[in-house]
Automatic annotation (TrEMBL):
SUPFAM superfamilies: RmlC-like cupins (SSF51182). It comes from the Eukaryota. Transmembrane segments: none annotated. InterPro entries: RmlC-like_jellyroll, RmlC_Cupin_sf, UGlyAH_Cupin_dom. Residues 22-97 form the (S)-ureidoglycine aminohydrolase cupin domain. It comes from Deinandra increscens subsp. villosa. PANTHER family: OS04G0445200 PROTEIN, RMLC-LIKE CUPINS SUPERFAMILY PROTEIN. This is (S)-ureidoglycine aminohydrolase cupin domain-containing protein. It holds the Pfam family Cupin_3. CDD domains: cupin_TM1112-like.
Length: 108
């Protein structure tokens, strides 16, 4: 079992989650992040859950033309820890986000 098998890492997209679900998660209290259109190389060192207020993103596997996900405004997205990818942002992104602190202290 290799540690670099990012092909197993799946992005989960919940289209149009209910307002009650968003309230339950406390999304309005999460930090905000945004970016303008362009291509971004990203690596997720922790699982991130985010809710897109606006934007449109296509996600490609790192160093590949294989699209692995697509999401946009109104989507609740879970990005797995260990994912390396390229975000191709066609519409500027504005999102609330939260990192899961699975193990804040890494003991060898």
């Amino acid at each position: 079992m290799a540690g670099e098998s990012s092909s197993d890492l799946r992005i989960i997209v919940h289209k149009n989650p209910s307002q009650s679900h968003l309230s339950e998660l406390g999304i309005k209290s999460w930090p905000k992040w945004g970016c303008s259109p362009g291509k971004y190389q990203l690596k997720f060192d922790a699982q991130e859950t985010c809710y897109l207020l606006r934007g449109k993103v296509k996600v490609y596997r790192k160093n590949s033309s294989e699209m692995i996900s697509e999401f946009g405004a109104g989507d609740l997205v879970i990005l797995p820890e260990g994912l390396s990818c390229t975000w191709d942002v066609s519409v500027a992104v504005d999102k609330h986000y939260k990192f899961e602190s699975t193990s804040s202290s890494s003991s060898s």
